[in-house]
DNA sequence: TATACTTTTGCATACGTATGCAAAAAAGGA
DNA sequence: TCCTTTTTTGCATACGTATGCAAAAGTATA
């Protein structure tokens, strides 16, 4: 079943013009008279002609494709991110080559996929990248941008929330309310987001003489639920729990409910991300809003900047706290 | 900043062979002596050579790309689907060109994106497709498969759960438990999934002389929450609620909690999909398991079948009920 | 060593497009 | 009408790869 791709040549013949002219009709800004343009467009319509992006990419070295690699597909935050990325990139004429990586670190093989297709940039959310790969990409002049990650040892741009600052604000809030028994539940401990949120939170409280209990989790609901439940059962009763993200906080919240601890009266809970579920009545989780749209805009901006010889930029956005029913 | 793509020609020169030979080294099954293969691979490694998928696709008419179009990115069920699709397709050497469509119906423009890149097949989850587009794709000999949708009026394959049968089983369960005041909450009413689940459920119960109350919702948590809450406030007290999907059921569940109705003692709740959240302790939702892996396998199977001249196949898989704490 | 046979290689061409250059056509000016 | 200027068009070529065909190289047989 051969795929009968109809080419510009065929359109040209039927329209009594050259292939070049057909090409120009489909090239914005090229010089074609109105009369021939109309004629060509009509024939193209009849034949269902579609310019071939592969051939075009081959010659212009512009593929209009962007590689997007994601890891933690379980976290609703990233679904939102995915949606916004594809929406905005489409609006700019880019197509998205999507890779979902199961491994902690993006693999060479996955990057090769991107390279083979000559993507014009790579966006990595929520996954690690080896410096070897980064330098290979740099050598190939393909910009790569870490989204919601921030690795200073890597020579690439990054866009993230100012996690240290945000977590500091939350710490300040918790401190000023007078809470003393405070818990932080980490995400995956090798991620910059978790590290920064921990640092911002703990450092502020330490400066006030408060020691924070750390529960080492992994961004999953299940782990966070279990850790919190165990903590309560061990006899410790926290005033305040801050989770490294919303899913983490929800796990803690459900564990508290399970142990019949009233929220926010006995314990308050705060998350990070403001995923859709945080607003569900049953949860109504107080959380830090990451300005996703803004973060995506910044990322695309860096992508199209096309000045990858200068030093890597680490863009930080602010966001804000939103008070719901798990704080008072 | 020109992108200096290194070509097979450059590798050839350095390795003292022809470009053809380099090509053959990277073409599985081609005839190359072990000696030259090693030499070429070494040079290729040195130069960071990467075969160009665009050029290859141009000549072989095989792009190894599959178009994936999704709509309801808010539903966790589809995130799982997305993950499994990309994982399995990657394993088969396919790349995924991803489109997230906001519109109810996939737009011409979005399909054009796929066509321009010569994708080898298109998977549409959860969105509608005009028959005009389908016939255009058929004309271009690009197989298109509806995932979790089933439109008999369209000339294309589809893979879905046997929704009528599944909903019938659930109706049987509800009937045999002796419930009389039964509610079905729809999804988007113009989707085949919602229609079929409603049909299977209602038809069985009608045959037993039971009239089902229908709440017309749209697959969102919020709408379902509100409708259920209103229903209760109007004075109606259901024995059993079946939601067109899990998100719908969770909305109903939270509304019941909000109205202080005990689940499952006063009212039981059943969902459909078995998303990860259904297993969370706080919800522990009884639901119908859609065998996602199997559905994805069937889809990819149809995609690679490559016999799109015969009539469209509508593959149905079964799935099974999973009992948790919202039923007794 | 000569012959037949097999494997490996290079040459040439094709895929479908974009684009510099020069020729052709159209438009403007007198 | 003729000449100049501008716009539109076609020709030829390039992008980086795969592949049929024939030449070359290697291997086996007698």
TrEMBL record, chains A, B:
From the record, give the transmembrane residue ranges: none
Query: Which PROSITE patterns does the UniProt entry name for this protein?
Result: HTH_LACI_2
Q: Which SMART domains match?
A: HTH_LACI
**What single Pfam family name could you report for this chain, choosing any that match?**
LacI
| UniProt key word Transcription | yes
Q: Which UniProt keywords apply?
A: DNA-binding, Repressor, Transcription, Transcription regulation
The HTH lacI-type domain sits at: 10-60
**Gene Ontology MF terms:** DNA binding
DNA-binding as a keyword? yes
Question: What's the protein called, per UniProt?
Answer: DNA-binding LacI/PurR family transcriptional regulator
């Amino acid at each position: 079943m051969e795929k009968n791709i109809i080419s510009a040549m065929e359109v040209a013949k039927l329209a009594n013009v050259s292939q070049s002219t057909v090409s120009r009709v489909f090239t914005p800004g090229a010089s074609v008279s109105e009369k021939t343009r109309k004629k060509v467009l009509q024939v193209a319509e009849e034949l269902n002609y579609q310019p071939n992006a592969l051939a075009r990419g081959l010659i212009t070295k512009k593929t209009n494709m962007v590689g997007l690699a994601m890891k933690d597909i379980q976290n609703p935050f990233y679904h939102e991110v995915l949606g916004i990325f594809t929406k905005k990139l489409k609006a700019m004429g880019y197509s998205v080559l999507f890779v979902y990586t199961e491994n902690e670190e993006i693999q060479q093989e996955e990057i090769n996929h991107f390279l083979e297709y000559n993507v014009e940039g790579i966006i990595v959310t929520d996954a690690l990248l080896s410096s070897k790969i980064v330098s290979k990409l740099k050598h190939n002049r393909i910009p790569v941008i870490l989204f919601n990650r921030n690795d200073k040892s890597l020579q690439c741009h990054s866009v993230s929330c100012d996690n240290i600052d945000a977590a500091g604000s939350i710490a300040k809030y918790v401190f000023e309310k007078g809470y003393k028994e405070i818990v932080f539940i980490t995400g995956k401990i090798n991620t910059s987001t978790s590290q920064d949120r921990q640092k911002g939170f703990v450092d502020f409280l330490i400066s006030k003489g408060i020691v924070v209990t750390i529960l080492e989790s992994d961004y999953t609901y299940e782990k966070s639920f279990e850790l919190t439940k165990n903590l309560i059962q061990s006899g410790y009763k926290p005033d305040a729990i801050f989770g490294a993200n919303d899913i983490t906080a929800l796990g803690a919240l459900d564990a508290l409910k399970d142990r019949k601890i009233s929220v926010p009266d006995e314990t308050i809970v705060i998350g990070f991300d403001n995923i859709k579920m945080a607003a569900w009545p049953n949860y109504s989780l107080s959380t830090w809003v990451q300005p996703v749209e803004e973060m995506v805009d910044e990322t695309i901006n860096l992508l199209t900047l096309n000045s990858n010889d200068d030093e890597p930029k680490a863009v930080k956005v602010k966001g804000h706290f939103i008070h719901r029913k798990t704080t008072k």
